[in-house]
Amino acid sequence: MKIEIFCLFLITSSLWMMSIEAAREPAVSPYVDATRMPNENYLVDLHRETGLNSVTLAFVLGTGYGCTPSWGGESTLQDSRIINAVKAFKNVGGDVIVATGGAMGPYLEATCSSPDQLADAYKKALDIVDSTHLDIDIEASINVDIMMNALKKLRSMIPSLTISFTMMVQGDDYGIVDILGVDILKRAVQNNVEVNIVNGMTMEFGSKRASWGDAVIAASESLHRQMKQVWPHKSDEELYTMIGVTPMIGRNFNGKIFQIKHAEQLVDWAKQRKIGHLSFWSVGRDNGDCPGGGVSPSCSSIAQNKFEFSKIFQQYSGTHIPDHFSTTKKPSTENPHHSTKPKPLKIDCSTGVQYIPHETYCDKYYWCFEGKPHLEQCANHLVWDPKINSCNYAESAQRTDCI
Asked: Whole-angstrom Cα distance, residue 205 to residue 70?
């Protein structure tokens, strides 16, 4: 009887361990100020005009009442305008990352007095928009011990959780800051908290380079060198897949300007390095409504077309990034999503259909945009689900030819 119980325990434990696998962070997910979305169709319109399939909702903060998660510290998590916009976005295949912190307070990480409180606050924010992606933007002092213990508890509640830290860059030849950057990453290692993405906030930092595009890339390479010190056992390739890069499009407060050509340069570099994540601040500024003006939350202050940066960054979303996000098992050398039943399919975008499954590969699909098919690829471990027009787990999609 004891042997049978022990065997059952081993089988159950093995199955549980195999099921724990962090979700791949969306390759492209620019920030959207959730409190500034003009209407409930905003995210759907963004998707239809640019093809963007993911956004990072900023920011979930505490309130004057303490550890109560809210949008921007002013709107409840249940704010119908925000929730309805997210639901509509998800209905067309969109994904969202929930970001906490930012330039303004009060931080949840500072107002929550215990790991349990903070973990519950994180989970409420993720659950309300059905997300497993948490981004913590650290620009002020926090209780690091409480945050680390909260993240460990949160991952036990959400095994597929993806954790990213967005951190301030000090200089292009230095990388991210020490106290609110590298030191926190080292604490994560000490506390056995897996970090999936280190997102360099490549804005407002010091540089003597003539090109701000060169400066952003140099800062990201410096971040890579810093990460090598934090995770010396990881390969250069793996560390690049853990890097996120987030410039501020258009005019920065330090007088530098991130131009359209710099966005194209960054995407080309990201493709070479297989960077894990690209973002920018912010979609609300991605327009040419105030060329030559000062820094504004509602425009880039340069001459540009509407959503021009979004369309350029979106070009990176189809890039294959080596998968090193598994928390318990190494990625298979075989493609689990290669269908054994090829079905020749004529890609005809003249019928008004927006999404068409790939004729051979389960994790690929065609997105019809402006009358032409664009080949897209789901994040690793997901397949295309034609019932909901979105990427999904093979089991949930009932794609038996992909399991």
From this structure: 29
245 pairs with which residues across the strands?
Answer: 200, 278
% helix, strand, coil for the chain, step of 5: 35, 20, 40
Distances in Å between the Cα of 353 and the Cα atoms of 46, 52, 224, 261 are 18, 18, 42, 33
Q: What is the DSSP string of 16-81?
A: HHHH--PPPPPSB--EEEGGG--STTHHHHHHHHH---EEEEEEEEEETTEEEEEETTTEETT-HH
**Cβ–Cβ < 8 Å for 402, 362:** yes
Q: Phi first, then psi: give them for residue 138, nearest 5 degrees.
A: -105, 110
Query: Quick one: what percent of the chain has pLDDT higher than 90?
Result: 71
pLDDT surpassing 60 at residue 336: no
pLDDT (0 to 100) of residue 45: 97
The answer for 106, left when phi > 0, alpha when psi is -120 to 50, beta otherwise, is: beta
Q: Are 185 and 227 in contact (CB under 8 A)?
A: yes
Q: Which domains does the chain have, with CATH numbers?
A: 21-314 (3.20.20.80), 332-403 (2.170.140)
Q: CA 298, 247, 171: angle at the middle one, nearest 5?
A: 130
Q: Show the tokens assigned to 253.
A: 């407060």
Distance CA 66, CA 295 (A): 31
User: Which position has the higher pLDDT, 321 or 198?
Assistant: 198
Amino acid found at 8: L
Asked if pLDDT for residue 153 goes beyond 60, the answer is yes
pLDDT at 232 over 70: yes
**Torsion sign over Cα 43, 284, 198, 378:** positive
**Residue 175, helix vs strand vs coil:** strand
Q: Is there a contact between 195 and 184 (Cβ–Cβ < 8 Å)?
A: no
Contact indicator for 60, 67 with CB cutoff of 8 Å: no
Other beta carbons within 10 angstroms of residue 270's beta carbon come to: 25
pLDDT digit string, tens, across residues 271-305: 999 999 999 999 999 999 999 999 999 999 999 99
CB-CB contact of 330 with 357 (8 Å): no
Q: How many CA atoms lie within 13 A of 19 on its CB side?
A: 12
Query: What proportion of the chain, given as a percentage, has pLDDT over 70?
Result: 86
